[in-house]
Design goal:
single chain, about 800 residues, Ferric Hydroxamate Uptake Protein, Chain A, domain 1, Immunoglobulin-like, about 40% strand, six-stranded mixed beta sheet, mainly beta, about 10% helix
Length: about 800
Amino acid sequence: MSVRGRSTWLPYNPTGTAGSGRRRKERLNMVRACPRSWNVATVALLALVSAAGAAAQETRGTIVGTVRDVSGGVLPGITVVVTSEGMNLSNETVTNARGSFEFPYLLPGTYTVVVQADGFRKFTQTGLQLTVNNRVDLPVVLEVGAVMDEVTVTASSPLLDTTASAASTLTNREVNSLPMFGNSALLLARSVPGVQWTGQPNYLGLHSNIGASAVNAAGGVGGTEYSLDGVPNSGPSRRVAYLPYTDTVSEIKIETAGFDASKGHSSGANISMMTKSGTNHYRGSGTWQYWNQDWNATQSTTNAAYYGRIDAADRAGDAEEAQRLRSERKVPPGHHNNWASVVGGPVSMPRLFQGRDKLFFFFSYNGFKDAKVEEPTAVNRTVPTEAQRRGDFSELLRIDPVRYQIYDPRTARLENGRVVRDPFPNNQVPILNPLYNAYLKLYPMPNNPAGIVSREGSNNYLASATPFNWDYKAFSNRIDWNVSSRHRAFGRWSYNSFLEDRGDWTYETARGLHTNGLVRKNVGATVDHVFLQNSSTIWNVSVAYNRFTEGNERNDVQRSFSPAALGLPAYLEERAAKSPCRLLPQADFSDGSYSDMGVTCGGFTDYSVGTVRAELSKLRGTQSLRAGVDLRRHWRSNIPGGNTSGVFSFRNTFVRQRDDTNNAGLLGLEWAAFMLGTPSSVSIDTNDSYNLVNPYYASYVQDDWRVNARLTVNVGVRYEYEGGFIERANRGVGGGFDFGALLPISAAAEAAYRANPMPGLASIEVRGGNNYLGANGAPRTLSDGQHSWMPRLGSGAATARSTIRTTSSTTA
């Protein structure tokens, strides 16, 4: 026996009728006599093995149920209407031959369910809460009576969640009510049972996608998968790409163990976020947060340096300098502004279009600006003293005349097989480096008091006003469209950008020269469509794209320097001009010695993922069947950075007494090497770009079988193929070493040897080299692909009227 019906979406009319049943009561006995059927072979097969991890891609929920009479008999052909109380959108269906109904792909929120048929009292369930990726089983019992009579259930005890998983849901009320500094809702996952937090206890704003991604399943199992509105929200190294503002988030679900075959591509926790949708009422909010550096307690190290300088002036008898220091601020000024605004409602244009019950929007804009200084632990630097800038290193001889004696590299000679050199009298070193003055003016003068500075002069510059600035902006817009009675869609786009100005310790001499210029940008978009073929068959298709860019942007100050302007050879200028950025060649010193001068060319890396997902959902008896595909393509491309203008490394190698001397100091000697223009090494980077692509394909079948009103069994199987990385231009070594390969230099090398051969060997053959991807039969992939079969088995059960327990079991 089968019953076919029509399923529609329509605006909800709470005062009207929802339809009538199509079956007479005298046929109920026929329904009770129908035998149950289920696929024994499927259950037996899927109980054999299980999958390791799952990612919570789908963020919408499902309401299922069975309609019975008071005697327990199922009622087919009964009209059931589910209505979103916020959007006033209704979904109507008819129970099948087993009395079952199902409403998949529902947005999280509050719903009203109305069930009615001729000869029975109307049943109304209000206040039914549906959360992210939640499957709720609603038992309905119709009592005999007039249609005008009504049984209403309001805010009842929790219904059975038939999802076989270990998960926690943070509702919209919790997201907006629980305190969080930085307005990043994802940080609430740290307090969820079964989650292990591996991050640091410091401030994490909406830009902190590294710190916010330190969410792992219990035991520190990595591989967490993040999704937003049902599609991947992935950045580099399995980090989250976009952190929505709290007022934009509808709900968050953190799943530490899942057994739904529709979820995959992960081995750890699964975090799903759902953005808010507009409703029939215009609603919005605005927030602003502000803090000032003057409201914070001063760090002890800053206090020590501040009062140390005053004490040093007092001891020196310089009352005027001591008074000037007392008038200075202990810390430079700093402040933080954090703002946000959201608005949502129906899309309407007066006299042209009215979007109530049909078209909705939800838009958000948020950002923050920080203007503050660097952490106290990162502001001490080492610079040459006033005497050292003139070449006078005699003060170091008073500390240790052996360790800090500087030797003249121009006097190097061999004695007994070792290189030896003569000392500079009284450690007076001449300036021979033609680039010296250009670099010297970039170094600030020492300012730290003696109590902070070491005997040798380490940490003699306090860069207390080193900038530590942030600039972040984010936009997001979501559109929900009730197209017709059979079609429903939504679309969302988002954009956010972050710029960090940090580490610029030469702010007094060349503001902007050493800023890190960290940039993060993310753009994402998704379109989703749901099609109701009939009351038991629903199709869902979604297409999404997400791109995350990270790198270091170089500013005009950093680009204003060039090798040629400093007097370096023209070929360095030519090389730098062909690179992504032309910068000041780096002067590099050892750790523990002087602070380096100059920065590298940062470069940029793009991480992108394109997704196409399609799913067929079908209700058959008491079984909810789903089958689908999950197709993704990952891209990673790079604009190279590095030392594109060259780096000059200065060590004590050529200014110590002998080439085997191992007790020579660093301070003094390395600056002397810089003054003399004798670097220990010189290098320049030539880095090529790359463009990698990685395909991922998955398909699955899932059966959620409602055995009875209190037990649901979930069985499914998933197949995944993770393809190897392909370099799109074959720029990579692959396929091993070819000992017989003819090289581009073979002919020239052989001819050069024949012109001046060794005695007894008139000629040679130059053969052998690496194979390259896609050439001479070598594969195009950097690694082999991987196939995975992942059967799954789980169950959800209610053990008592007021207690719900979800259990899952797997065998490998």
